[in-house]
Amino acid sequence: MRVLAFARLRELLGFGQCELVLDPGTSVDALWRRLVAESSSAEALRDSTRFARNGALVDGGTALSDGDEVALMPPVGGG
């Protein structure tokens, strides 16, 4: 599975893109917990982070499959 991290999450997690092997049916929330276990500073962004699976927005309970691409998108400010 390919995981893409953008903006502040890219900095906190230490990658823009990585490949992971997960058990079939692993939820988006379980993926998140795995990622922040290695970077607890990113955990504070959970409530405002949006997830996209293969280009479509999904919630934390969504089950993931082999070959999926998951994008982690924190809030973006602008002016």
What is the number of independent domains? Answer: 1
CATH architectural name: Roll
Shape: globular
Cα(first) to Cα(last) distance is 35 Å
Query: Approximately what portion of the residues adopt beta-strand conformation?
Result: 15-25%
Helix content: 10-25%
Fourth-tier CATH superfamily name: Beta-grasp domain
Q: What's the rounded overall pLDDT mean?
A: 92
SSE string, helices as H and strands as E: EHEHEEE
Note the total helix count. Answer: 2
Biggest beta sheet summary:
5 strands, mixed
* CATH topology group: Ubiquitin-like (UB roll)
Strand-pairing-aware structural class: alpha+beta
**CATH class categorisation:** Alpha Beta
Query: Which regions contain 5 or more consecutive residues with pLDDT less than 50?
Result: none
Characterise this structure.
This protein is an alpha+beta fold. It contains 2 helices and 5 strands; from the N terminus they run βαβαβββ. Strand 3 (50-53) and strand 4 form a beta hairpin. The model has no long low-confidence stretch (mean pLDDT 92).
Helix and strand arrangement:
Blueprint: E1 2-5, H1 7-13, E2 17-19, H2 28-37, E3 50-53, E4 56-58, E5 69-73
Parallel strand pairs: 1-5
Antiparallel strand pairs: 1-2, 3-4, 3-5
Fill in the keyword field for this structure.
single chain; 79 residues; alpha+beta; Ubiquitin-like (UB roll); 5 strands; 22% helix; 24% strand
Short description:
This protein is of the alpha+beta class and 79 residues long. The protein contains 2 helices and 5 strands.
